[in-house]
Each structure stands twice: as C-alpha cells, then as structure tokens.
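Thread: quick sanity check before group meeting

JM: Hey all, I'm pulling together slides for Thursday and realized we never actually wrote out the predicted structure for the chain we discussed last week. Dropping the sequence here so it's in one place. If anyone has concerns about the input, flag it before I start.
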Amino acid sequence: MRLHLLPLARAAADSMHPMGQNGCLRVEDALTCIQAAWRAEMILNAPRNIWRLERAERAALLIDAASYYGALREALIKARSSVFVIGWDLDSRTRLVGERGPPLDGYPETFAQFLTALVNERPDLLVHLLVWDYSMLYALEREPFPIFSLGWRTPQRIRYCLDDDLPVGASHHQKLVVIDDAVAFCGGLDITIRRWDTAEHRPDDPRRVDPAGVRYHPFHDVQALVDGKAALALAELVRERWARAGCVAAPPVQPTGDPWPDTVKPDFKLVDVGVARTLPITEETDEIREIEGLFVDAIDHATRTIYIENQFLTATRIAERLAKRMQEQPALEVVMVVPKAHHSWLESQVMRSGRVRFMQILEAAGVLDRVALLSPHVCAGKSDTDVMVHSKLMIVDDVLLHVGSANLNNRSIGLDSECDLAIEAASADQRRRLQAIRDRLLGHHFACMHGLANADSAFFGQPGPSSCARR
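JM (edit): ok, ran it. Output follows.
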C-alpha cells in the first residue's frame, strides 16, 4: 500500500526521503514525514521551549484563590502517601477555604493545622514543604519565624525545608503542589495570606482580611490543575528541587486513588501539556531559559489575537518580539491586563518605568493602535477600588494557553526559578475550549475595567471598558 503525500508532509519528505517517480512513499515513510512536519508546525518543542510534553487525562484552569484553595483542600483531603508544596512564600495562617466560606469537612481551616490533622489520621502520609530562603527585603511581608509554625510545631511527617540553592540576587519563584504523584497544581498563587479572593472581587467583601483583621485590595490570579503523566512530570521536578536543596530523601510513589477535586470540571480531557522552566546557572546546573523561548515562539506564531495577564510588563526582548510580530501581522491585536499599581513604592517605581519602556517599544513600531493596556477596577455602591493583578497567563489565538509562575520581566526569564505549563490545541474541540477560557477571562475583567492606553471596544469583540461598572 502507498500513500500520496499531503502538502503538509511533502516539504519534509523532500528533504528526508527520495521520491519515487509517482510521487509516493511507503506507509511508514509517509507517516514519519507527516509527524515531522506536524512537529515543525507546533509551538511546543522540547528542548527548545519546554522540558517535557506529557499527556493529562484532565486539565483545568482555576480562576482566583478562592477557587484554587477550595480545590486544593478537596485534593489534599484525598491524599494518601505524598504531598509536595513548593513556594516563593508559605504561611501557616493561610485559610484554605473556597468561595462558599467555612468548610464543612470537619478539618481545620488554616494551612498548618489542616496539614497536621491530615497526617495525624493517616500514618502513611508524608508532607514536604519547600520554600525559598528569602531575602530580608521581604521579611516585613512574611510570617515571622515560619520554621516554628510549619516545621518545629508540626508532626515529624510534615517536613519543612528552606531552599537557598541560588546565585546571589535570585529567588525561587515556582508555585507547585503535587499530591500522590497523581494531580498537580501550577500557577501564580502561593499558599499565603492576602491572596484569597473570589471572582467577584467585591471591594467591600468582609472575608478578604489578613490574620490581623486588616482588609486588603481585591486580588486576581490563576492556577492550573493537571493529572496523569503531566502530574508525574511535575512530581519529578519537585523531587529534583527537594534533593538539590539538601532535604531528606523523598523517593517517588506509585500513584493510587484519584485526588482530583470533585467540584472541579475539567476544561480539557486527554490533552498534551508542556512543562517549561527557568533556572539560573549555578555551580552544579546549567542555565535553563525554556519559558523565554516559549513566550518568543508563541508570539511568533500569533496571527489574530494575543491575550496577556501579568503582574509585570518589563521584559524588553518580549516587547521587541511582540512589536516585530505585529508589524508582520497587520490584523494581530493584543490585550494586556495588568495592575494599575504595585504593592511597595520601590516596586511601583521600578516596574512602572519598565512598563513605560515596554509600551514605548510598541509605539515606536507603529502598532500601539492595536494594543489595549488595561487594569481592572471594581465598584459596589459607594465603594470602589483597583484589583491587584498577580496572574501570569498568555493565550495566543485559539491555539496556545500558557500559565504559570513567570512574570513578563527579566528576572522570570533568566534569573529566578520558574515553572509554567502550556497547552497547544490539537483539535477543533480543544480550540473551542481554549477560546472559551479566554472569553471567560475577558468577561471576568471587562465588567469593570480601566483603560491605561488605547483601549478599543473592537478588541476581541468585547464591550468597551468603563471607568467603573457595578458587579
């Protein structure tokens, strides 16, 4: 049996196999050529821009911390043998509650007490907590002496470890939870205080307070949830981090049971998930810049729309690549959702100037009329406030979803440790699902949005931003 090559495969075949006089190849040769051509057309490509590409039986995007903490709580309750929590910050006082408020499962609310209750009733369960051994610049923002609250005051089967395996000036910024090597969470959310919020972002929500009872601004972020071999890949990653930090050995476990939270409906089923990293160069490891490559390659494939949510917008190389691609694709439109301001005065000054430079690059390229730079602002009655955008997400056309811990700044693409996930749509159904996620996020924000630069009501077919709209 012989096959005539489709145009997609013919170019690859011309350089790989001699053609017969009838322009045909054997079946096995044709399939090899088709696979090679398909890979060449894909964005996700190991090792250029991802570490691994693995199948997930289910994948979901959790919007805002109430959704994430509620789902995480459900999954942890199902844990039987192993839990890894990797963070930039961990706070024992964090309330692990969902959108509906206090849980009815009988376990304590706060993170440390909740984990203690789990390991006390499950003698085979080991919990590993790995957190960046942070710079003193952040000391005032963090829980005092977490080594006591998460280490010495918890059972021995909760293992708390600090990680300083980094060059000077770098930080461990990955935010991962892996449960029984069967499900994994990855995104922009640490398990810490002043993160919890619902999708409504009500300015007067009385539940949005820190342990001292002080209210904080509405807070927006996203977290991905995967299972299957994609979760196994993240399990390998967290064990590698754990070992490099010099912590007690933690051998792999055989996934048993199904810790997937019952209340989470998958956005995707049977989907391939790319895992991308940033790791700085050290005495023992080479530099890894997969996430930078993923941003660049995704932008280079964009033809119609790029939707970005990010805490920071300062990476010059990304701005230059975006400008170049928009010049090449005159129909390409970009929406970027960012915070209006940042937490500290220093951070605000540095990041605001970087954002100005980012936009100046787009302006110099003559593409700024197709860029909307937006920040969410919510109102309820006489109350109104800005929403802190902390998410790190990009959606390109209806083809690629990219979410994780990496900001669009130079630290995240070359200095700090980061971990992102990416899904590239491989079917019409997956493209529809990816577009539905983008539209859900747009709808989430556009009810009340401030335009920072060139907001246009034509962008992505959404209603124009208003100065303040009630939710």
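AS: nice. Residues 272-450 form a domain with the Endonuclease; Chain A fold (CATH 3.30.870.10). Residues 345-364 form the longest helix (20 residues).
JM: adding both to the slides.
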